[in-house]
């Protein structure tokens, strides 16, 4: 019994040991233009954490309904506050800054394999149609995913 418990604890500890931490900055202006997340496309492993940091005021990070893996945990950060998210399902996640979504302030997380990429590309069209500017930004980001 003790050896089984020890083996289970070692497996759990190993899973925590390999989880990486990533940071995404929320910016008024960056390498990708105005109102951007940097990096805009982030590759992670399932179980990794991503911390969204507002390097400029007035931003948040939140998942976009319907543009993430089925069963994944959605998130919604407060305006001007950092939020840390644990990526819990494999696939592609699209997120936005709610106050600046109309300006295409969006980003993409790829956890493991992009198993839902084609569905995300299709389902993102109505969301992209709401952008007042930078209408090709999300399409460009999704094209970078392999």
UniProtKB/TrEMBL annotation:
Keyword Plastid: no
Subcellular location, record wording: Periplasm
Top-level taxon of the source organism: Bacteria
UniProt entry keywords in alphabetical sequence: Copper, Electron transport, Metal-binding, Periplasm, Signal, Transport
Keyword Signal on entry: yes
Chief place of localization: periplasm
Domain Blue (type 1) copper intervals: 24-110
Annotated GO CC locations: periplasmic space
Note on cofactor: Binds 1 copper ion per subunit.
Alphabetical list of InterPro entries matching this protein: Amicyanin/Pseudoazurin, BlueCu_1, Copper_blue_Plastocyanin, Cupredoxin, Pseudoazurin
GO molecular function: copper ion binding; electron transfer activity
Residues engaged in binding Cu cation: 59, 97, 100, 105
Signal peptide residue numbers: 1-19
Cofactor(s) essential for the protein: Cu cation
NCBIfam families reported in the protein's UniProt record: pseudoazurin
Protein name per UniProt: Pseudoazurin
Organism expressing this protein natively: Neptunomonas phycophila
